[in-house]
Amino acid sequence: MILSYYLGGFPMKKKKTRAAVTISMPREMAEEYDNLSKRLAKNRSVLFREMFLAYKKQNLKEEFLELQTYGAALAKKRRPFTESDVEKLVFEGR
Q1: Cα→Cα distances 14→6, 19, 80, Å
Q2: Residue 13 domain-assigned?
Q3: In this structure, what DSSP letter does residue 11 have?
Q4: Number of domains into which the chain is organized
Q5: What is this structure's pTM?
Q6: In the chain, count of helices (H) and strands (E)?
Q7: 70 found inside a domain
Q8: How many alpha carbons lie under 13 Å from residue 75 in its C-beta half-sphere?
Q9: pLDDT value at residue 12
Q10: Is 8 exposed, middle or buried (0-12, 13-18, 19+ CB in 10 A)?
Q11: Is residue 26 part of a domain?
């Protein structure tokens, strides 16, 4: 058991920061995954975390581009604001 102490000096259990996750995949894919982790000199967990973060980053980029495209389409339908329009809106409530 891992113990830590706070100001009162009483022991507290350390909060877990990791969770074990089990995944299943075809045997050939699992072999490729193991070979890749060996080639990159990374353990399976590190490789999975890096792959997940790369996927998440790519997914956020795609979502941003979709929103940007949507916003651009709306702007074309409406009259875009001029610089003076923006100044009026900013200072209107002050």
Answers
A1: 11, 14, 55
A2: no
A3: E
A4: 1
A5: 0.61
A6: 3, 2
A7: yes
A8: 9
A9: 63
A10: exposed
A11: yes
